[in-house]
Amino acid sequence: MRSAACARALSLPICLGLLAAACGGGSAGPPPPKADFALVITPEATFAVTGNTTAPVVLSVAPQNGFSDSVTVTLQGVPQGVTVSPSSPFVLAAGQTRSLAFTVPAMAPVGIASITVLATSGALSHGAQLTLTTRAQPAVRTYQDGSVLYLESSSGSDTARIGLETKWGGSIVEVSLNGVNFVNAHDTGREVQPAFREGKDLNWNPTLGGDVYDQGTAIIAYMVSPDALSTQAQPLQWSPDFYGGGAGRPVPGDMLVEQTITAVTSQLNTFKVHYKATHLGRDLHANGIQELPAVYTNQDYSRFARYEDTSPWTYGATTATQFPILGTDGPLVYVPEHWGALVNGQTLGLTGFAPSNYPYAQGFMAPDPGAGGPTDNATNYFILQSYLTIAPGYVFEWDVYLIPGDYRDARQIIYWLHETQGAPDIFTATGATDSPSTGSTISGVTTVAGWAFDDLDVSKTEVLVDGAVDGTASYGATRPDIPAVFPHAPASVGFSYPLDTTKYPNAAHTLNVRVTDSSGNVAVFADVPVTVSN
């Protein structure tokens, strides 16, 4: 028998919640969402050369609505003979990420396979598709055409080519894919080439291609072997007028550059450039940013693509923007994956990967209406930063990888290189001496202060007077102004040292700060001339 209250409620469109019990039931609202998960694969397409392994593919389980169980992952449709690491099936916990790699046998047929990745947990099941493309190992050939040395890497319908101009010291004037050259070689200051600098004397600038008068660096030696190109040259001073030269009078710098170019045959369209540089002089060039190398592209390739967030090697979203116009100051760009690419609006262009360099890039645009070809004036430029103090007889070696084509494919190749190739710490710390200022007069106990940080760690900071160590500075003071300039640099990079000037005669002296990193690389900051007056 219903109550009167219930009878009245039945005449309403909705049974009020307060009367639900009296009515013998009623609506309690929508049921709570069920715990679930999403399966995410990045990238959704990968590739491998026969006899080799793909770049890592990142698979993750994203929990939804409080899901906290594990899932079992199974791969279906893997081509015969292809092995997967980790082997299928395997278990992933909620929120966990796992990298997959596919190894393709040497005799595998080339083609495209669609692989289903299935993740299950109880009654829940989600699948995703992954495309695996297998390509034939690139065929390599080398040859010379006039003054240019060429190396080609061909697989299927694609041919990548790199060219070195022997009239310009062996600088790289071409990196092309299927006949499209991305490199601008308008003059001896362009191309892809190393150029050396120091922190104080801006006139010192040995440049592999040549000098400001378009006088090319003479080649000392070169070799074209069946699978490699090699050159040796002594770069010219970019501004010969400061060294007794000028137009018609080039001046060799005090550096020797040896360059070896090979194709990375375990990947597609990839060139490895190995450099060896020797300082021929007996002087010391203070710590400074180096162009190792500078990369110039044609006008159409004006967008600088990179990853700039704080979780490298996870296939995080990339950014592509234009650098400022030449002559306009632009901020440093953070590139923690150590690569950058100048591309057009269709993601095509030239990618450079410098695994040992600092995670910062700089660049500019130099547009020229109506121009844009490989020898036209319009250009775009970038470097991945590196720092060196070039001491007497200093010898150092480093590697750079150049990849023409779609930068998204290049990024997968870079992930493979990151997994399989070393990245030795060969560059010095960077920093500056803030006080005392150049030319100042000091007395008593004077504070020598500044900042320094390294791509790994600073282990020792010393203060020198007239070339001799006076003592070791304290290190680790907070300098919030440094991360404001260098994105994601640590803030505790300040150093300070109480210099007792009474130990030195009243006269002109030279202060230096010498910073040693955890790998033993030594940076000597620019001279600070002072006068002691006690």
Notes on the protein architecture:
The chain has about 525 residues and is mainly beta. The protein has 4 domains: about 1-30, no CATH class; about 35-135, Immunoglobulins (Immunoglobulin-like, Sandwich); about 150-420, Beta-galactosidase, Chain A, domain 5, CATH 2.70.98; about 430-530, Immunoglobulin-like (Sandwich). The chain is built from 3 helices and 41 strands. The strands form 8 sheets. It has a 9-stranded antiparallel beta sheet, with helices on one face. Strands 15, 22, 25, 28, 29 and 30 form a 6-stranded antiparallel beta sheet that branches. Strands 33, 35, 36, 39, 40 and 41 form a 6-stranded mixed beta sheet that branches. A hairpin with a 2-residue loop joins β13 (about 170-175) and β14. The longest helix has 14 residues, at about 405-420. Residues about 1-25 have low confidence and may be disordered.
